[in-house]
Amino acid sequence: MRIDVVTIFPDYLAPLELSLVGKARAAGVLDVRVHDLRDWTTDRHRTVDDTPYGGGAGMVMKPDVWGAALDAVAGEATPRLIVPTPSGQPFTQDVAAELADEPWLVFACGRYEGIDARFVDDARTRLPVTELSIGDYVLGGGESAVLVVVEAVARLLPGVVGNPESLVEESHGADGLLEYPVYTKPPTWRGLDVPEVLLSGHHGMVARWRRDEALRRTARHRPDLLERIDPDQLDQRDREV
Ligand code: 6GU
Fold it and tell me: Which of 37, 90, 160, 180 is the most buried (most CB within 10 A)?
């Protein structure tokens, strides 16, 4: 997969060299290119923003600079344009899985009060465009959201996560529940014991305990997720939790 990121803070994307995403790049699964938006400015001050029409606080990023950047990065091709913005559609594990099927993503990182709306309107006439929000809070710009989205997508690419089983039993996985708590050695630490059932070697009881804990955690932290589970997926034992 190819990923281009356009930003006024290329150094902000330095973490893409590290850890899982860095390894995916080194392994040749990911081709990441970070660009400085100011490369497409034409004035002496390398201006990327201006005051908003209609008045109000803050500055708006200029459509001409963004348009030139996208033209240069995409060329005649049709990568999917991703615009991180608090007014976008929610970024979820399902969206991550969809993006992982794309051959090429271009991220446009807005700052200030956002990018002139005509940039996205124009891009939509020739490219698929997705405006994404990573949560209900406001960031200073799209860069940290790109780090989040790229990591969530990269670990779904074939060969990036060593054991593909780790992609199955995890929070926001197929069963729609949050993950159960996990333990490793030692069996007692600071007076706290690992739950006995996990030491029992009884696979059926371990599976039942994990399912119960996942249901309890989901009910406590994310009751909205429980509502979305198909009742046919719940057995009698689930209902007792
Ligand atoms: Cl994707 N961008 C910005 N600037 N703020 C956000 C966001 C994205 N998601 C939540 N808040």
Answer: 37
